[in-house]
Amino acid sequence: MKSLQSSLTPSPPQVLPEGDQASPLDLAVNPGCNLRLFKAGETIFREGDEADKAYIIESGYVEIFVGSGEEAIQLNVLGPGDIFGEMGIVDASPRSASVKAIGPCRCMVILASQIVERIDASSPIVRLMIAMALHRNRAFNTYLRAYSKSAHLGLPSPALTERSYTKSQQYQTILDSIKLESDLQNAVANHELRLFYQPLVDLNQKNVVGFESLLRWQSPTRGTVSPYQFISLAEETSLIVPIGFWILEQACTDLKRFEHRLAQMGQQQRQLFVSVNISVRQFQEPGFFEQLMALTQRHGVGPQQLKLEVTERVFLDEVEAIATINQCRAAGFHVSLDDFGTGYSSLNYLERCEIDSLKIDQSFIQKLCTSERAKILVGSIIEIARRLGLPTVAEGIETAEQRAILQALGCEVGQGYLFSQPIAFADAIALL
Ligand code: C2E
Ligand code: CA
Ligand code: CA
Questions:
Q1: pTM, rounded to two decimals
Q2: How far is the CA of 218 from the centre of ligand 1 (A)?
Q3: Are 265 and 372 within one domain?
């Protein structure tokens, strides 16, 4: 057998160190056990075999090679602690190299099922990286197989094997999202994020009682990017934590400027709040509450002036997040349950966790005039909230008819294009 190392790199150890031999007794294979024992020279698997397991070497050595007989090229020799056979189970492809025990060898078996579920559950970006790494390894093995037959070949060429994954739509989508993520990281540093404001209107008095802050990204290359496109990405990568603090800082600064404007208008008595959307990931961040307190105190913003909008996702088993929410409420911050009615178990959450107001999801509001059932549901939500002592906010109001129905059903506050789209801070000040 030719050794790859003899032609490319220095040779690894090929002899078993003394005292590392498996005892003859161990060589009896115990079926129902996840240990496998291989005799010296035994083939563990061959190129082209179906891959259903990987192995961790407990004792002994194995050699990995491509090709066969005289033309075989040794790729590596692995020993205790090393894993082999993992490539095939990661992407369910046939073995691209063969493995043989050099001496008696004792291995722990890892079943494909133990790995596959974990990989499937990981982020698409991680899966793509794994696919690329495996592809490169396999391309190299394919090259070496060819090399073993005609040694005059040059170094592995990128064109040697087809990189089929680059052609898939999924690959493009993943690359786009990696680029978006890098751009977003720069966006924070380059001050490309802006807070827009959408007024919340008292449906009876018809005056603006507060604003919801909504994030916008003014990208020099992408234009205005909606949070629907980047917030979930920021949540996945935890970038939402620094962005979230920037949002809170900005919201407090703007809140003071709103107050200042009201004072100029001789309306210093008028109470105005700003609602800020807070992601579950932010509530899980250690020290979130302390930082929120420090930040509001620094700006001279009272906790009752800031509403924290949370979605029902917070209640899905997120114990730390719920504890932090309770801490915020105890300090006087108002917590509003956003997108109410779209989660799995909205009523259950209402029973489990105390909150201060309910925001009925826009999907109900938009069907209010066309679906009797939507109207009944909205009426029931408002009634339940009223009995729990919670004010309701309806979002996504686009027509005067929707507003009239909501008002008749007893909803207190409305938000939507009927009153105003989300607007820049300067326009929001002018709207007051
Ligand atoms: P959301 O909190 O449910 O915000 C309401 C969304 O509905 C906003 O979209 C708003 O522009 C849109 N909207 C308001 N009125 C109407 C209407 O009458 N008709 C229709 N069709 N849409 C209306 P936007 O600004 O694109 O935000 C989307 C989502 O992104 C938000 O949903 C929220 O979940 C998230 N988001 C926005 N800003 C932030 C932020 O600062 N932090 C976090 N964590 N999430 C944010
Ligand atoms: Ca919201
Ligand atoms: Ca909402």
A1: 0.76
A2: 16
A3: yes
